[in-house]
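To fix ideas, we quote verbatim a fold written out as tokens:
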Amino acid sequence: MRSPSFKPTLPRKPPFSTQTTIQNHSDVCSPSPETRFISLIHVSETTCHLKQTHAQITLHGLSQNSHVITQLISTCSLFKSIDYALSIFRHSREPNLFIFNSLIRALSDNACFAGSISHFSLMLRLSIRPDRLTFPFVLKSAASLSEYGLGGALHASIVRLGLELDSFVRTSLANMYVKFGFLDHALQLFEETPDRNKAENVLLWNVLINGCCKVGDLEMASKLFEAMPDRRSIGSWNSLINGFLQKGDVERAMVLFDRMPEKNVISWTTMVAGFSQNGDYQRALSTFYRMLDEGVKPNDYTVISALSACARIGALDAGIQIHEYVLGNGFRINRDLGNALVDMYSKCGEIECASRVFCQIKEKDLLTWSVMISGWATHGCCGEALRCFEEMKSAGIYPDEVVFLAVLMACSHSGLVDQGLHVFNSMCFDYSITPTVKHYTCIVDLFVRAGHLEEALKFIESMPIEPDFVIWGTLFCACRAHKNIEMAELASKRLLQLEPKHPGSYVFLSNIYAGAKRWEDVEKVRNAMKIRGIDKPPGWSFIEVGGHVHRFTASDQAHTCAEEIYRKLGEITACARAQGYMPDTDWVLHNIEEEEKEDALGSHSEKLALAFGLVSTSSPAVIRIVKNLRVCGDCHSLMKHVSKISQRDIVLRDIKRFHHFKDGACTCMDYW
């Protein structure tokens, strides 16, 4: 066993013994001081209250009572006051099995795994024999520290002491082997368990189902689940449902969820989080609302998962409703909830609301600052991002590579080349943070957005790490905007060498050739895609209206309001033409007639979402659209004109940044 980083201290032994308290005859029927003080320990609400009770315990001469000490240590664990628990233990003159068990459990429950193991070793050195309540928490600590050798030694000790058939110990052993990745050992334990169908062994079944799900063996997990006796717990159902969700099998998870005889908050949270993690954000939100309708109160993690779904699809109305629910139902806006709210408001286009929530978070951590800085950056608010970055450093928070990435992105979106290079150098030399490929990509983006393509290429060639697909793709995209075909062909060759089946490199190259009207080359690229079976990823756009999220794809005819949408799109395009808008057909790849090109442009998903927003809402409601790809130049141009014609604010979030259209202008200043 490797030597633990946490070393226990032997309890001090004072030179005198505590005087025994003698009860009065009249107090025989009253609760004993021990009982009374244990009750006071249990009703303590804070560590401060607990210390006050402890002071009274000492005054009444009960500071060495093992029952009292055990309860004090256990309650310290609940308050996460491990240093105080250790102090109580060190002042215990003769710690017994119960005191050691309470401390080992407290250390394990608070992730002080090395301390838990070292106090177990101390217990053995003091010749105190462990029991069935000792081993589960030592096994948990060994598993958390990946102490394989210790795990085997503990198993041997359990057998030697005759505790291997205890259901609590056996379940903990199986769980340890699952965490080690030794599923075969856990299954062997399970197979060798007599009377495993008894009620007390239901946790053992759950551990095995969990273990099978963890390694992706869902067929074995399902077999175990179906073979379980009638005592399947909610935990059994939750484990298997989570396994299917982690594997991406959302439909089988949903079938199981609907079969459940009863559901708890964990069941609902598993589904909400699972839908969100699998990209089904609309079902994540509908499941969250269904949960509320059925009278189940969500926990913090449920709310955070629902807010994450809102953030991904720009569902601001739903996000606001969830925020109002949180405020009206006794939730404390802690750091995790606060971070989720800042992220939601930021990604739904309400950066000022995000900033207000950010200011209300009392204890900000690195993630809090990172989310806020990233929010300012994606909204093109470079000054605010840099100011926030300086405030973070002044607050004593040490920036990491994620924060620097956000600051570099802010500089890139605002064209601040010198400022961005200064930040990059500061990261390397002032903070000794080694740049990752993402940081190098940001610097390339910084150069190319400002039109410095030659500097970008020199920077790529001088990088100490091998440039990846994204870096060459960043240069490649810029080549189209600046019509640099020679450099585009160089970048394209690199892209195809790195990922010959990635559709992006073919699409980008087609764009370049189409812009130069080299139609034969366009066809060659398209034929190469067909031969290799490569398809361009479909574009889609989300828009939230009346609390419901609507999804559009290019040339979409599936929406119930399709006829009205296309009619409105025709109207706004005609009005925009009267104001000087001309469809930019360079964004169409095919060598077809101009009229056909305009038709192809007119059915982009973001335009359909815009038209739907106009027919479904009235002024002054803001139209908010989320696009999964980068917005094309023609759609960007049309939205500027429409914002002026309709006198409506339009907020579009694409894969790169936010575009706020108002009175015919965009906050990106056409720099995106």
User: Anything to note?
Assistant: The mean pLDDT is 87. The first helix runs from residue 33 to 43. Residues 238 and 266 are 7 Å apart (CA to CA). DSSP finds 34 helices and six strands in the chain.
